[in-house]
Amino acid sequence: MRDDPHLDGHERLTASGRERIARTTLHDELVARLRDLIVEGELAPGTRVPERILCERFGVSRTPLREALKVLASEGLLELLPNRGATVARLTVADLEELFPVMGALEALAGELACARISDEEIAEIRALHYQMVLHYTRRELPAYFRLNQSIHERIMTAAGNPTLARMYRSLAGRIRRARYIANMSRARWERAVEEHEAILDALARRDAPRLARILKQHLQNKYETVKESLQAQDGTASQDDRRRPSHSA
Amino acid sequence: MRDDPHLDGHERLTASGRERIARTTLHDELVARLRDLIVEGELAPGTRVPERILCERFGVSRTPLREALKVLASEGLLELLPNRGATVARLTVADLEELFPVMGALEALAGELACARISDEEIAEIRALHYQMVLHYTRRELPAYFRLNQSIHERIMTAAGNPTLARMYRSLAGRIRRARYIANMSRARWERAVEEHEAILDALARRDAPRLARILKQHLQNKYETVKESLQAQDGTASQDDRRRPSHSA
DNA sequence: TCATTATGAATTGCATGCAATCTCTTGTGG
DNA sequence: CCACAAGAGATTGCATGCAATTCATAATGA
Predict the structure, then answer these.
(1) Quick check: is A31 in a domain?
(2) In terms of domains, do B109 and B198 share one?
(3) Same domain flag for A67 and A97
(4) B195 and B221: one domain?
(5) What ipTM was predicted for this assembly?
């Protein structure tokens, strides 16, 4: 049970106060909230998601909800079987093997584009985030590290100034992020990741587009290796446990 | 005036990967058919698309239609304004400037992956398509050339064996394809494009992944230049005309 | 004449209802 | 005891209805 799972319900929105974002329609709001629920892991992969449950949870009727389900299915977060309802898409090793190279290509492109457009100030901001991230690394604070890490990649993506690219990136990132609960970085991996980030920052500061692209691509490749090993190790020990949700750590 | 009301029996196999079941639901079928209508240019960019019209056209009620509209909007083919209905998304020069680099990155990745997996037989098939395309080039048969061209890129994408990548690629390709009506290739550009395709085939046959990636990326970049020049030339002569009707000349 | 407003029609957003399909339990025969 | 079938209950797919918003057109006033 989460905090205030109900939308405004029947009470018609009076545009005063309560709405932070200018989200005008119910289905758009539902898409956003359901996506969060899935990406944040509250709705575990493989879970069946009956319309009725969600309708009650959000206090809406089935029509806008179903519209939202269709959108999320087209994003790959849900699987929709005709007459059989929606299930949260599972994330198999095969899926990750597909997703990471694409992420790598998109991030590499973002890096290239960013090199051509980024301002000194933006670089300074990223540098600040970077060293804060390094601090969390030295303190072994994984959740905070993840948050900063994600933030840095997000900044580079923004600096690329290509909304289409950013949209695709975020879509993939949302799918992949669900895997972070199951990826246990070894000490060595973590150190290497930080080193790579150091190189990313350096290439970005020098506006060395080809190098940044190469590093980012490799960075994603390594990330995949980490996740894959971790996943395979878990498969060996606890085969069915991925159905249950590990603790919320990030 | 419902054209072809038997939507259900269609069984389109556009499925990349996991969709084994034939399309049985109305909204899925509607998504596919509406997408075709938009991509093929039958629904011109900027056109308002009232639900009522589409309902009559397809002989369905508003519920499944609206579900389809939401999905197409999330793909970027439609723009949905709250309480104001759907319009076919316009394709501005700025949009193309965003789309082509992403396409380039995705195709480059596809080329790389394909080099690692493609069979001799698949290469032979692509070679056959290539030379048929060249034939159409020598005969100056643009529509047929386009078709074969598209087919070749599609084959490379398939050979990459990455359904996620393919899905993103097709989504972008659908959006970009609508621009082909307005892109007039000069003789020199066309020749160069064919040369590039020659190089693509060569790199693929040698499984030279880095080179293929480089060529594909450049190929897309050149394509963008072509479209851009053509578009700017048209902007010069008929500044506002693209708002009303793009010429149907495929 | 032009700008502004008022009013009715059309369109959208959402809720609800009904038929078709699926699921799960119970019962029957081998 | 197991396999299979039948039926009730639940769930999905789609159509329709109603309220709210937008759009179009006419009317009013400066």
Answers:
(1) yes
(2) yes
(3) no
(4) yes
(5) 0.83
Measured from Cα to the C1' atom, the residue closest to D15 is: B61
Beta bridge partners of B78: B88
CA angle B85, B90, B91 (to 5 degrees): 155
Per the DSSP assignment, residues forming a β-bridge with A60 are none
Helix extents (H) in chain A: 26-39, 51-58, 62-75, 93-117, 120-138, 142-160, 163-177, 187-205, 209-237
Tell me the pLDDT band of A75, cut-offs 50, 70 and 90: very high
Q: Which range, of A186-190, A246-250, B60-64, averages the lowest pLDDT?
A: A246-250
Domain boundary among A88, A103, A124: A88
Q: Which two tokens stand for residue B65?
A: 């239609």
- B residues 147..166 contacting A (CB < 8 A): 162-165
Interface test with B, best of A51, A63, A70 (most B CBs within 10 A): A70
Using left for φ > 0, alpha for ψ between -120 and 50, and beta otherwise, residue B83 falls in left
Please tell me the total number of residues recorded for chain A in this structure: 250
| Ramachandran sector of residue B16 (left: φ over 0; alpha: ψ -120 to 50; beta: rest) | beta
What 8-state DSSP symbol labels residue B80?
E
Q: Would you state the torsion angle of the CA atoms of residues B136, B139, B144, B147, taken in this order, to the nearest 10 degrees? A: 40
Distances (CA, A) of B244 to A148, B52, B84, B174, B234: 47, 22, 20, 21, 14
**What is the DSSP secondary-structure string of A175-231?**
HHHGGGGT----HHHHHHHHHHHHHHHHHHHTT-HHHHHHHHHHHHHHHHHHHHHHH
Average pLDDT of every residue of chain A: 85
Identify the weakest region by mean pLDDT among A46-60, A65-79, A233-247, B95-109: A233-247
Is residue A155 within 8 Å of residue A125, measured between CB atoms? yes
Q: What's the domain count of chain B?
A: 2
Judging contacts by C-beta atoms under 8 Å, the chain A residues touching residue B105 are 105-106, 108-109
Residues ≥6 apart with Cβ < 8 Å to B245: B44
Give tens-digit pLDDT for A38-67.
Answer: 998 899 999 999 999 999 999 999 999 999
- Structure token pair of residue A230: 């971790």
- Pick from B101, B174, B89: nearest CA to A160: B101
